[in-house]
């Protein structure tokens, strides 16, 4: 018995108590966890047109039915006009909602004068590309981006289709979140050509005639 | 007798593996972390599905709060001093070394030129409180550039690769955003990053 006791005591002497060290580590880790941002914020790239006047011959002309104008109004309201904005005819302004069943459905379902549905075509092409990427992991990000860009331009399966142009107009009292939501829809619908424009007199007249709170 | 001694020994827990794990975790956090810079005003960014990350460097951050107060910062401390010197020179303001050091130590800047000297003489805690009430003016000076435009222009002059990132509160009226963007467009800054947070649920 006495022998066993002696050897045990010797073993204990080599042990170091790590508990205070662990305590300190815990504190340090908590500090770092609270002070840091692990997830970097996301961004959206946005290119605005210049304020300088563009000569007439450099402007691109789009067919009337290939444009949709989205009005972002106060109190989270959203309206859109398919084709040309007619200030004297308030019925061309249609009210919709945000999200999947509202503006997105309207954009996807938009039929042009040629009977095509450009946004639907582009979205299908993009879905196909996404599936292809899933099957083929060798595809690099650069290749994917290149092809996505081509699709957004309207080059689908070797054919060129005319794509949609979306004009986003926000009134003074709409908020920033709504603007970002509208830009988001452009991303989801893979719209290549969209622009944020200012409200002009025609738009003002139309919104007033339709009784929209600006 | 023997029983009691055995019990005493049982309480001992070996902490070595735990401390190993802790050290690993600590290393991980220390290496991956970038410290959050305190912002003078609270800004809740809108959510979006965009998945592009903010560029690593050469970023000029523009912070816009609900009421339209504008603040800025630059990630490169050395260039920041040059930008400050450039802008103050245009107003004929001479800052002391201490004031420049104070300016550089602040996480964000936004004091208008008419109070900048007084502002930079204050203590750090006072500056942090005081900055909330200030903001870079967007009004044009005598029909020319506004102070905001001067700052952006100087930043572009000092570093031609600078990228403009706008972070605005989701409640900000479009009127204010429009004004900021307009002023940027006037000085031919047409590409920006809009800082958003990732949308977690699909609507």
Task: Write up this protein.
The complex is a heterodimer of chains A (214) and B (203). Chain A has 7 helices and 8 strands, in the order H-H-E-E-E-E-H-H-H-E-E-E-H-E-H. Chain A is α/β, with parallel strands linked by helices. In chain A, strands 4-3-2-7-8 form a 5-stranded mixed sheet. The radius of gyration of chain A is 29 Å and the shape is extended. The model of chain A has no long low-confidence stretch (mean pLDDT 79). The model of chain B has no long low-confidence stretch (mean pLDDT 81). Chain B contains 8 helices and 6 strands; from the N terminus they run H-H-E-E-E-E-H-H-H-H-H-E-H-E. Chain B folds into 2 domains: 31 residues; 152 residues, no CATH class. With 203 residues, chain B is of the alpha/beta class. In chain B, strands 1-6-5-3-4 form a 5-stranded mixed sheet. In chain B, helix 3 packs across helix 7. In chain B, strand 5, helix 8 and strand 6 form a beta-alpha-beta unit. The N and C termini of chain B lie far apart (70 Å). Chains A and B meet through helix 1, helix 2, strand 1 and helix 6 of A and helix 1, helix 2, strand 1, strand 2 and strand 5 of B. Strand 1 of chain A pairs antiparallel with strand 6 of chain B.
């Amino acid at each position: 018995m006495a022998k066993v006791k002696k050897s045990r005591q010797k073993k204990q002497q080599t042990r170091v108590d790590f508990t205070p060290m662990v305590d300190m580590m815990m504190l340090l880790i908590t500090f770092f966890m609270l002070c840091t941002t692990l997830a970097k914020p996301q961004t959206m790239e946005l290119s605005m047109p210049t304020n300088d006047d563009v000569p007439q011959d450099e402007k691109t002309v789009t067919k009337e039915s290939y444009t949709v104008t989205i009005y972002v109004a106060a109190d989270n309201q959203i309206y859109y006009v398919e084709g040309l904005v007619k200030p004297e005819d308030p019925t061309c302004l249609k009210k919709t909602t945000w999200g999947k069943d509202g503006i997105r459905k309207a954009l996807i379902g938009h039929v042009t004068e040629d009977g095509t549905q450009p946004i639907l075509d582009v979205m299908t092409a993009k879905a196909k590309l996404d599936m292809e990427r899933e099957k083929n992991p060798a595809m690099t990000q650069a290749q994917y981006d290149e092809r996505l860009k081509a699709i957004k331009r309207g080059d689908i399966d070797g054919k060129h289709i005319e794509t949609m142009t979306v004009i986003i107009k926000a009134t003074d009292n709409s908020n920033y979140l709504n603007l970002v939501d509208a830009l988001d829809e452009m991303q989801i619908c893979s719209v290549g050509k969209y622009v944020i424009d200012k409200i002009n007199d025609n738009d003002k007249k139309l919104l007033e005639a339709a009784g929209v709170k600006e | 007798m023997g029983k009691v001694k055995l019990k005493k020994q049982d309480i001992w827990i070996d902490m070595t593996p735990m401390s190993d794990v802790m050290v690993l975790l600590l290393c991980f956090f220390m290496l991956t972390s970038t410290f959050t810079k305190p912002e003078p005003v609270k800004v809740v960014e809108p959510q979006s599905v965009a998945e592009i990350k903010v560029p690593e460097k050469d970023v000029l951050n523009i912070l816009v709060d609900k009421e339209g107060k504008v603040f800025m910062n630059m990630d490169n401390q050395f260039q920041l001093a040059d930008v400050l010197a450039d802008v103050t020179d245009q107003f004929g303001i001479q800052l002391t070394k201490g004031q420049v050091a104070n300016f550089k130590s602040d996480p964000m800047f936004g004091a208008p030129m008419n109070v900048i000297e007084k502002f930079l003489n204050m203590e750090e805690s006072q500056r942090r409180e005081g900055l909330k009430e200030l903001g870079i003016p967007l009004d044009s000076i005598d029909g020319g550039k506004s102070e905001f435009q001067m700052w952006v222009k100087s930043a572009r002059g000092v570093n031609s690769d600078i990228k403009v990132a706008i972070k605005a509160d989701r409640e900000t009226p479009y009127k204010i955003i429009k004004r900021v963007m307009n002023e940027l467009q006037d000085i031919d800054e047409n590409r920006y990053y809009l800082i958003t947070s990732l949308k977690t649920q699909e609507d």
